[in-house]
Automatic annotation (TrEMBL):
<dbReference type="Pfam" id="PF00005">
    <property type="entry name" value="ABC_tran"/>
</dbReference>
<dbReference type="GO" id="GO:0005524">
    <property type="term" value="F:ATP binding"/>
</dbReference>
<keyword id="KW-1278">Translocase</keyword>
<dbReference type="GO" id="GO:0016887">
    <property type="term" value="F:ATP hydrolysis activity"/>
</dbReference>
<dbReference type="InterPro" id="IPR003439">
    <property type="entry name" value="ABC_transporter-like_ATP-bd"/>
</dbReference>
<protein>
    <recommendedName>
        <fullName>ABC transporter ATP-binding protein</fullName>
    </recommendedName>
</protein>
<keyword id="KW-0067">ATP-binding</keyword>
<dbReference type="InterPro" id="IPR003593">
    <property type="entry name" value="AAA+_ATPase"/>
</dbReference>
<dbReference type="InterPro" id="IPR027417">
    <property type="entry name" value="P-loop_NTPase"/>
</dbReference>
<keyword id="KW-0813">Transport</keyword>
<dbReference type="InterPro" id="IPR015856">
    <property type="entry name" value="ABC_transpr_CbiO/EcfA_su"/>
</dbReference>
<dbReference type="InterPro" id="IPR005876">
    <property type="entry name" value="Co_trans_ATP-bd"/>
</dbReference>
<keyword id="KW-1003">Cell membrane</keyword>
<comment type="similarity">
    <text>Belongs to the ABC transporter superfamily.</text>
</comment>
<dbReference type="InterPro" id="IPR050095">
    <property type="entry name" value="ECF_ABC_transporter_ATP-bd"/>
</dbReference>
<keyword id="KW-0547">Nucleotide-binding</keyword>
<comment type="function">
    <text>Part of an ABC transporter complex. Responsible for energy coupling to the transport system.</text>
</comment>
Amino acid sequence: MIGVTTPALQVTGLRYAYPDGRPALRGVDLTLAPGERVALLGPNGAGKTTLVLHLNGILHGGGGRVEVSGLPVTPGDRAAIAEIRRRVGIVFQDPDDQLFMPTVAEDVAFGPANLGVRGAELTARVDEALAAVGMTEHRDQVPHHLSFGQRRRVAVATVLAMRPEILVLDEPSSNLDPASRRELAEILESLPVTLLMVTHDLPYALELCPRSVILDGGRIAADGDTAALLSDRELMRGHRLELPFGFNPAAAGA
Ligand SMILES: Nc1ncnc2c1ncn2[C@@H]1O[C@H](COP(=O)(O)OP(=O)(O)OP(=O)(O)O)[C@@H](O)[C@H]1O
């Protein structure tokens, strides 16, 4: 179809229940356009992580469909899943889940090297990813000797080195001091990727994501302009979302 852009991400009728039988996703529809930055909000237990784990096929089998730039996430098809995992980079909440090599540079090289990238191309990817997160000077350090905020940046770099189309971040601002929080926001804003950010940090969502989606009870409860959603007190209260005391989304988003 001429003039119709393929969505970066299309989730259709996604359902999932954990083995104990309790449904965590009850029919989720979500479409992200290429280059969009979207916050995924919702109370504890809403299903946010469960949704994220479907985006590269870690969880599957409950029904519905996920497509990344038109390519279906087809569990069982190893080649398709490898391609999906190249396209969708997930930065988990705890950077230590993603860092396990002796040096920062080796950690960043690990993903692309696994894809068969070698030599000058591999070096270029590592350099580019470390520069993007401002960690070039730490390339030869032991990841576990870095501060938490620095380790989170390196975790972002490990994913960027895969040159993903979609970057998914789970609580990127948690445990960061105000300066690190702002610096990471600047980094994320500068990246030419589609971004889906799971967060309880509503001012961060407002700062980074023009659009927000509220997930509650495994269903999409609202989807729209972040400032408008955050300004709707009843909506926010109804989904156990609380702005920091004195924070005015209308003024901050202006
Ligand atoms: N491994 C698991 N086994 C069984 N139930 C699970 C498992 N992981 C999550 N759940 C349940 O699935 C539901 C959705 O959980 P999920 O972790 O996706 O929510 P969330 O929105 O990410 O929450 P939070 O904001 O607390 O991280 C919850 O009821 C949770 O208890």
